[in-house]
Amino acid sequence: MVSKLWELEEVQEKQHLTEEEKRCEDLFISTHYRDENGRFVVRLPFAKQLALGDSPGAAQACLLRTEKRFSLNASLCEAYSAFMKEYVELGHMELVPHGQRSRPSFYMPHHAVFRDDKPGKIRVVFNASRKTTNGLSLNDVLLPGPKLQADITVVLTNWRFFKCAGTTDVETMWTSRECCGVSI
């Protein structure tokens, strides 16, 4: 009887997946693995076979705008160069070999965001929503996948059970993965 009362008082954390979210989850489960460096390798969850169109033009235009900002702000140029060097050193990015440049690929535009109150520190924003020449973006052709964050009511309720609570910084979590042999 008492256990029934507790069950009624609990916040239920049920997850109802849509058909697309289920397909995305199944694809992840069946194709992900860890490489010899401990990084996760995942296959991009394409919704269907769609040609993305050409993306180098959009990425190059974004690069030219970023380079123009460098001429106005030397510290931004230095911070961006340090970011690029760090990504190469960490294995998040590499030069595409000449023999592979003709393969179908997507060049993801990105730009640096900096704050005047934090000189020398930048945050690089990758734009997978940028449309290609046929009007589709990378985000348009990928399955959405399930929501991964915990329900906020469960998080807030759980915080009431303990005297201390903590959070963590996941700055490099999103760059510690690889998609189909292509580092992102």
Brief write-up:
This protein is of the alpha+beta class and 184 residues long. Helix content is 36%, strand content 11%.
List keywords for this structure.
single chain; 184 residues; 36% helix; alpha+beta; 4-stranded mixed beta sheet
Describe it for me?
By secondary structure, the protein is of the alpha+beta class. A hairpin with a 2-residue loop joins strand 5 and strand 6 (182-183). It has two domains: 17-47 and 142-163 and 173-183, no CATH class; 54-132, no CATH class. The protein is globular and about 65 Å long. It has helices at 2-9, 19-31, 56-72, 74-90, 138-141, 152-159, and strands at residues 33-34, 40-42, 110-114, 122-126, 177-179, 182-183. The chain has a four-stranded mixed β-sheet, with no helix packed on it. The longest helix is centred in the middle third of the chain and has 17 residues, at 56-72.
* Total of domains: 2
Strand adjacency order, main sheet: 1-2-5-6
Instruction: Report the major sheet.
Output: 4 strands, mixed
Shape: globular
Q: What is the β-strand count?
A: 6
- For this structure, the quaternary state is single chain
**How far apart are the termini?**
53 Å
What are the secondary-structure elements, in order, as H or E?
Answer: HHEEHHEEHHEE
SS-based structural class? Answer: alpha+beta
Which spans of ≥5 residues are poorly predicted at pLDDT below 50? none
* Helicity level: 25-40%
Rg estimate, integer Å: 21 Å
Please report the number of helical segments: 6
